[in-house]
Amino acid sequence: MTKRSKKRKKRTWRDAFGPNERHQRVRPTESFDYIPNPHRGTTTFQRFQGDALYPGDRSSDTDGPTVFKRAPKHLKPNRNYAPWTTVSYCRWPWSWLEPKKGKYNWRLVDGALKAGRDRGQTVQMRFQPYTLRVDYSETPIKARRHPPQRSVNVPDWYWDTGATWLTKGTYAPNEPDSNDPRYLEHFGDFIRAFAERYDGHHNLESIDIAYAGFWGESGGNTTKRTAEKLAEIYLKSFRKTQLLSMVGTAGCKYAARKTRNSRRHLGWRADCFGDLRFVKHSPDVPDGLNWTHMYEAYPREVVQCGVVDAWKTAPVTMETCGNAMTWHKRGYDLDWIVEQGYRYHMTFFMPKSVAYPKSMIEKLVAFDKRIGYRFVLKQVRLPLEATPGGRMEFQTFIENVGCAPIYRPYKLAYRFTQGRRSLVAHSKQDIRTWLPGNVWFAERITLPKGLKPGEATIDVGIVNDDDQPVVWFAIKGKLAAGWHPMTKIDVV
């Protein structure tokens, strides 16, 4: 006669805890995978995610995109570059965007914003006063009055306003006098028109304060006072979109001072990141002791412009001189450059959509993972049970293993699910204060009233205003809807 096997008692998740235990701890496993989180990382340049990289080692500072192809059904990761980029950088000369006074070519801007959205990217932008030297014998001009023979590619109509030029300009002969009141009026009108249409656009990541000179970033021939007036137009026009100012310029110094004690937060950008061009056999200085951006410009300029701590509240963008291929050919010290990027608390890296040398790919992808923010959820301590409408204490430990915070006011949220019903509770934490290092906080979360007695699963996420997860923790496990599964709780 065989003994009837005893029926096992069904165990629940709660049985793992002792009868007198009141709290549980959740400790996710850190993930070291590549995470395409928004508002950070390597950018594409005049390109969008999935587009071909520039051939060779040259890209175009002038030619922003004019044709926008439909996004493929299945985007593929980039080869020989950062695998996925969630930010695109685009810029166009003023003459392309306002070919006639008051008649704007918004098609370019609309196209770029839509293309970015379709590729999972936000877009950083700059509109540039002029970008090329022109010879009117080769490039005919439509203006009735204009400089003799050589100048730059401002809109043709601008010269007919009576605008003046400088015979010996900073960058080119007969370039516009940017201190002329007409320049302040007409380029200022364009800045205001752009802001009226696009300020606060959900897919516009940032705008460069570009106001005068070649590419607009350095200020050209402006006096300090004129630079301040042009920077002020940006500050008054863009109230919602993040502004970035070129470090080392009078406009940057003014904008930083003007916003220092306000609710506005000015970010900064730098051109020629990585420049270690140590000249040999110079007739003027000993070998290797010449001026370079990395040794001379940036350490001084961030102090003089008053933006040493700006990274705590606004992003830092670094654009390369040349690109990573240039660094490789010149034998630059990549490890030292990367470390400087961390020390400047870089959020955006712009290597201009040129392929990485094979010897640099691994290190530059690792660099991309760490710049900006990268949040690791280390532990959450919470109750084993709670009553609908009741408040329960969550103690949370997060590590930001990146080198900067996030600058968007998304919300930390918990989703409680029973069957097909899900309810979301929000944390009151300001995630923009999660600086690099350890973050710990305790807060009381209200268990949603719509839950019934029984088990409920808890997921965690960083969500937008529609309660859709938009930022992911660097932890293992993510549901199809983007939430991270966490634990259960007894609703009593």
What's this model, at a glance?
The protein is α/β, with parallel strands linked by helices and 492 residues long. The protein is built from 10 helices and 22 strands. It folds into 2 domains: 138 residues, Immunoglobulin-like (Sandwich), CATH 2.60.40.770; 282 residues, Alpha-Beta Barrel (TIM Barrel).
Describe the protein's architecture and organization.
With 492 residues, the protein is α/β, with parallel strands linked by helices. It has helices spanning 94-97, 106-118, 156-159, 181-198, 224-237, 250-259, 293-304, 324-330, 334-343, 361-370, and strands at residues 23-26, 41-45, 87-93, 122-128, 133-135, 150-152, 165-168, 173-176, 204-209, 242-246, 267-273, 316-320, 348-350, 375-383, 385-386, 391-400, 411-418, 421-426, 437-446, 454-463, 469-471, 484-491. The chain folds into 2 domains: 13-33 and 375-491, Sandwich (Immunoglobulin-like), CATH 2.60.40; 41-129 and 178-370, Glycosidases (TIM Barrel). The protein is built from 10 helices and 22 strands. Helix 4 packs parallel to helix 5 and helix 9 (334-343) packs parallel to helix 10. 41% of the residues are buried.
Count the domains.
2
Oligomeric form: single chain
Low-confidence segments: none
What proportion of the residues form beta strands (DSSP E)?
25-35%
Helical content, roughly?
10-25%
Number of helices: 10
